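Quick illustration, no need to memorize.
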Amino acid sequence: MALQRLVAAAVAVALLSLVLNNVAAFTPSWVLQELEDGRKRSVGLWKMCQDSLGYQAVRRGQGTQRQCKDLVWGFDNAGYQESRSTVKLQFDMMRACNLMATVALTAGQLIFLLGLMELPFITQESQWWEEAIAALFQLASFVLVIGLVTFYKIGPYTHLSYSCYLDIAACLLATLAAAMLIWNILHRRDDCLAPPVIIISRSLASPFHPRLDNDYVESPC
């Protein structure tokens, strides 16, 4: 029972990672960029918002207006003194890794739920049930690391924003969920590698006391 609680805890951690991963994907604040005319914009994976007025207009007292639009694959959203090809590669790579992580984390959740339903082809006692969930969570962590590493180099007028840090937290949570399941799998295998032990109580060996049924303890494996 304690081992099953550990699996449930790992799945809950992965669910939080899935939520953070999607919040990071659909918020327009992955990076903050400053443009040549003094305008600033926040760029996300699928949405971008920028000021409609330049720096001079703001100094004259005119308020800024935010204009947002959706982004697609290969969109040119390079900031001031940034390479267009590099920025395209960074965001396209991160979009792909974000989608792969979402699919992997969702699949892990579904396999966990199917195991709880005790279907004929998949149960909690299945050898591959817990291993498949751990592998999917580890895959999600791995692809998020690949996507995040592409942002190690950004322009001098570009700064990482909170959406990126949310995805870093999602990556760490996915790693933690996978580590919990892997530890659980290895711990259970260590228990099963030991030879079976039968402990006979003194009541069975003593001729002066009535023998009790099932008065022994076996190893769980």
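The chain is about 55% helix and 10% strand.
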